[in-house]
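Example record used in the benchmark description.
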Amino acid sequence: MSNKTVSLSTLRIPSHVRSFSCQQCGSCCLEKWRIEIDPTTYKQVAAIYESQQQDNVFHELMTKDDQGKSYMKFSNGRCAALTPENLCIFQKSLGEDYLSDTCKVYPRRIFASSRGIEFALTFSCPAALQVLLNPEPITIHTEEAAQSTFHFMRPRKFLCYVPENAAPSSWSFYYYQVEPLLLAILQSRTTTIEQRLLQLGALFTRLQSITPSPNWFEAIPKELHYIPVPPARKEKATVLFRQLLLVYAKSTPSFANMLANLLHHWDPISLTIPLTQYIAKTKESLEQRQFPQEAYWSAEKAYWKTTQASWEHILENYFVNFVLGKFFFFQNWQEAYLRMVTLYGFIKFLSISYAHILKKPVEPSILLPVIQEIDQSLNHSNIFFQNLSERIKNQPLAVQTDVALTLSQI
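Model output (structure tokens):
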């Protein structure tokens, strides 16, 4: 193995990250988050307030838990350091060097690799969400940091990855060759997003039969659409997806309430029962409830497929950003692919459910809030995905991939 180090002199900037601009909405500074403060920032800010004999003010802003981790305090649901104008008093009075890495980076995700500093976004931020609307494919521009006009706050600690330092017998070693292949499939606009996700799954199935080596790419068809895709299994997909809904509902009370509410609109019997009574009854018996399969497929045809071509680039951009978030490096690719298609399944299910309630086709005004909700809840729930992986990790590799492939067809 080599001993390469990260490079901080080069920037690899995706076009959607460059177009992002903070709108000072303050949504990232609300009590729905735990804003963690790194130890260096805590000590620096504490020293400033102590030198000004304002210890009492400092302790109104930050606190520590029993494990010694530091967090921002909240006042009336807002970060205690947030001004009425949605400005941070630390950044305003002390400068950005006194911000924690959490606040410096969000909603960007910043990585340091041997090829430079790399970026992705988190779409729990309303302003970041808007960049998904750009119909142009995401591109990556490389430039020297010293000459770049692109501004971002550098964290004290980067999340680093160096494929060259992985074992040559692992797929991590070839990540720089695999990533462009994943992006090419996701940005192939001759097929639907469902077909592209299936194509990714088919690629991973093919990689299972290949031993990682310098010539691995020769075993992949030059025309990616020649990789065989499994036949449609929508009924099996809905059975698996129902299980996912139940697993997440059990671990997340707010989602259990939302799911019961949505099922109320799918169930004709519910029209004769008061909503609160129906939700309470349904939450108690979610495991006995059937997935509204036929009604869902009918709504998919009426509300999803009729307008899909007009907003499909939103989902393409979302999943391209997912790849740029390095999930396929930091997780094994079966787990990353399972995470990707699970997110797709939840986004599609919620979008169709809301369209069904509103009796109108899916459009950006429905899709974007769903993506935001999924990114600030499900995609942040590592416990859920760990539990999901635990459920299938003892299965043969082919079965694990088959589960993910099936879910991509929901």
